[in-house]
Design a protein that fits this description.
The complex is a heterodimer of chains A (356) and B (345).
Chain A: H1 11-14, H2 16-22, H3 25-51, H4 59-64, H5 70-82, H6 90-107, H7 115-133, E1 147-148, H8 149-174, H9 179-194, H10 197-211, H11 220-246, H12 249-257, H13 262-292, E2 302-303, H14 304-311, H15 321-350
Parallel strand pairs in A: 1-2
Chain B: H1 8-26, H2 33-40, E1 43-47, E2 55-56, E3 62-63, H3 65-78, E4 84-88, H4 94-99, E5 105-111, H5 114-118, E6 122-124, E7 129-131, E8 133-138, E9 152-157, H6 162-173, E10 177-182, H7 185-193, E11 199-203, H8 204-213, E12 220-222, E13 230-237, H9 241-260, H10 267-270, H11 276-282, H12 287-292, H13 298-306, H14 309-316
Parallel strand pairs in B: 1-4, 1-5, 9-10, 9-11
Antiparallel strand pairs in B: 2-3, 5-13, 6-13, 7-13, 8-11, 8-12
Helix pairs in contact in B: 3-9, 3-13, 9-13
């Protein structure tokens, strides 16, 4: 048997894609079935999304056409993105979105991670609150007028920021040797993880105000943010605990033998390594929370998804729900997909050793 | 209400349970609502989100049938239709939120019931919309009244009282029907469009809105009968009688104006009327306003700002809108409906 096969490789072997799709009879059958399905669906999708769609015009033009009504999105863009925010002030809502997006972009670079970035975040959130809420030269806008994308972004980001210190504390407490502390952490985490987010939201918006003394009122938006951050904290704490468990005991012992106290060892040696391990899991949680913020619609807040739904309730542009949902689905997808890709990149970037 | 929202029934149960607790705690809280309104300079109104009844337009400005009554209230209190703030509230949340003082009034289509009056400590203003379970059929069926339905397949949403009401109705007429219980609210609508059922039954405002979302709304017709009573009325917290009276008479003013034939367009001509009742009503004769402590021209101002009941109805949900509601019971008593204003005297 010669080492070199004279025969040129078969067509299928030369093209990995062909081999994967048609390599075996089973695969070929699946490919064929999917191709037929695509052949049936794609022309219809093309017709609805593109060919018969109304790109600009009035609601009547849309009703007359058989395709999608993208003119609706054009008309309602401001409402979907900023909700009930006063239209003449909408530049502030856009600016707040830009600010939060900018912060997210800056934070994607691991080289910039540090105290400076944390300070930037706190300043950024403060800036977003000021832009949205007003004060000084800006006209005040009550939180129940906030809506759309800024609300979705602000809720997810501020909930995460508030949750983080709490989660670290809970994770450490759960691994603590102090029984009382551990019991407290376990109770909180399991209680919160044991009920759906919507129940926590209801408790924060319906029950909590009744417990306050007369006259005292805490803003609904603030209550929802705190409720969300408590929810995030419980899940985040479990992720961080997993990170802590992944750190070998040798690290603690080495730190101790260098004369570090428990606090110093935790802060300088254990936590940095533990957090690094679980960053992809944290981003995964962040994507989930970003989507969970849509639940605030049940307490009457106009987040991005709810604003899109309500936009199609307008008597003039009634019933273009599909277009509204497709549009926000695209926004959510872009956001979540890019986060997922970033998480993948980060995982490889931070653990070059595990790279294959 | 009936409020075009599938979570409704589920929510009603939860809201009642919560509000029962709320009522027990907050009965001591009830303060003079009107004082708070005047201090704040704006009325806080809880609304829902359904086309025609309450929905923000492209500029985020609230529009709708109930919204216009909120504006009318702002006219009565401040003589300015814009001194009112609308906040959307979900069906689960609105009753406890009213209890907790988040709103001065709910104009979100709350059904007036005896439980809500006695147990929850709510007071209701005049019914502004008589809703009730209706039947939506395909026009091609050629049916004009519900009693003609025989052997029809009728879609009902599961877990609603609609199921029981329709059964009672057919027991009474003695005709046959096949109920199709449908869980999902999207599927519920699709069932009629696809021909799986001949008719749908649900609260009529809900059906009217669903109909407006069909590809060809004109192929479907809402039958005139109502199988249940869902009177939708403004709800306020107990404990401020004057505020309740302001709500009452603001609504009555729109109804009385229609009865007089006074509209937004011709209200100024009516100022010249010699009819003493109209003179009192529009405040040409100021004695009435002085006696009740309101701006004598409050009714005039309301009509000038939002129009009479019929105008509010037609503009937002009437036959020429996409929601396309017929007046039905929501017609003046003089025309066979249920709307009746006590005298302005």
């Amino acid at each position: 048997m010669s080492l070199v096969d004279d025969k040129p490789p078969a067509l299928l072997d030369r093209h990995p894609l062909l081999k994967a799709t048609l390599g075996t009879p089973g695969n070929a059958a699946i490919t064929l079935a999917l191709a037929i399905l695509a052949g049936l669906l794609l022309p219809r999708a093309w017709d609805w999304f593109i060919w018969n769609a109304v790109w600009w015009g009035s609601a009547e033009d849309c009703t007359a056409a058989s395709g999608a009504c993208w003119a609706f999105i054009g008309e309602k863009l401001q409402f979907i993105v900023t909700g009930l925010y006063p239209p003449e002030q909408s530049y502030r809502a856009y600016a707040a979105c830009g600010l939060l997006f900018g912060l997210l972009l800056v934070s994607t670079s691991p080289r910039l991670w540090g105290r400076g970035l944390l300070a930037l975040w706190i300043a950024g959130i403060g800036g977003a609150i000021w832009l949205l809420g007003g004060g000084g030269p800006l006209v005040p806008v009550a939180t129940d007028k906030w809506g759309g994308l800024p609300v979705t972004l602000f809720l997810s980001i501020s909930a995460f920021l508030l949750a983080f210190p709490l989660a670290v504390g809970l994770a450490l407490a759960r691994r603590s040797r102090l029984g009382g502390l551990r019991l407290y952490a376990v109770t909180f985490i399991e209680l919160v993880r044991g009920v759906p987010f919507i129940a926590i939201l209801y408790a924060a918006t319906l029950l909590f105000p009744l417990m306050l003394p007369e006259g005292a009122a805490i803003d609904k938006f603030a209550r929802a943010t705190v409720a969300l951050s408590l929810f995030v904290a419980a899940y985040l704490a479990e992720i961080i605990r997993a990170g802590l468990q992944a750190i070998p005991n040798g690290q603690y012992e080495a730190a101790q033998s260098l004369g570090l106290t428990w606090w110093q060892a935790t802060r300088l040696v254990v936590l940095p390594q533990a957090l690094k391990t679980v960053i992809p899991a944290i981003i995964n949680l962040a994507i989930g929370i970003f989507q969970d913020t849509t639940l605030v619609a049940v307490i009457g807040m106009f987040d991005l998804l709810n604003a899109a739904r309500v936009a199609a309730n307008d008597q003039v542009w009634l019933g273009f729900y599909t277009e509204a949902y497709v549009f926000v689905a695209l926004l959510y997808f872009l956001f979540c997909f890019s986060s997922a890709r970033y998480s993948l990149w980060l995982e490889r970037h931070l653990n070059p050793v595990r790279r294959h | 209400m009936t409020y075009p929202f599938s979570l409704k029934r589920l929510a009603a149960t939860g809201a009642v349970a919560l509000s029962l607790g709320a009522a027990a705690i907050s009965s001591a809280f009830a303060g003079p609502t009107l004082d708070a309104i005047q201090q704040r300079g704006v009325i806080k109104v809880g609304v829902g989100t359904s086309p025609g009844f309450f929905a923000p337009d492209s500029n985020g400005k609230w529009q709708g049938f109930f919204v216009d009554f909120g504006r009318a209230l702002a006219v009565t209190v401040f003589n300015d239709p814009n001194k009112v703030e609308f906040t959307s509230s979900s069906p689960q949340q609105r009753l406890p939120a009213l209890q907790a003082g988040e709103f001065d009034i709910l104009l979100s289509g709350v059904t007036q019931t005896v439980t809500r009056a006695f147990k929850l400590g709510f007071h209701f203003g005049p019914v502004v919309f008589y809703d009730g379970q209706g039947i939506l059929v395909k026009k091609s069926l050629g049916v004009e009244k519900a009693a003609d339905l025989d052997g029809a397949t009728i879609g009902v949403q599961s877990g609603t009282t609609g199921e029981l009401n329709i059964a009672d109705f057919f027991r009474k007429t003695g005709k046959k029907y096949t109920p199709v219980v449908i869980e999902d609210s999207k599927e519920f609508v699709a069932a009629l469009e696809s021909g799986r059922v001949d008719a749908l039954t649900q609260d009529s405002s809900d059906l009217a809105i669903r109909r407006s979302e069909f590809k060809n709304p004109d192929d479907y017709v809402l039958l005139p009968e109502r199988l249940s009573k869902e009177p939708l009325a403004p709800a306020v917290r107990a404990g401020d009688d004057r505020w309740l009276e302001i709500v009452n008479w603001t609504v009555y003013a729109t109804i009385q104006a229609e009865e007089f034939g006074i509209t937004q367009a011709n209200v100024d001509e009516f100022l010249k009327s010699e009819d003493p009742a109209i003179k009192r009503f529009l405040g040409v004769d100021t004695s009435l306003g002085e006696a009740i402590g309101l701006d004598p021209k409050f009714a005039y101002n309301i009509i000038k700002a939002v129009g009479n009941y019929g105008e509010i109805f037609d503009r937002n949900i009437g036959p020429n809108t996409k929601v396309g509601f017929q007046r039905g019971y929501n017609e003046l008593w003089t025309k066979g409906g249920l709307l009746y204003s006590p005298p302005f005297r």
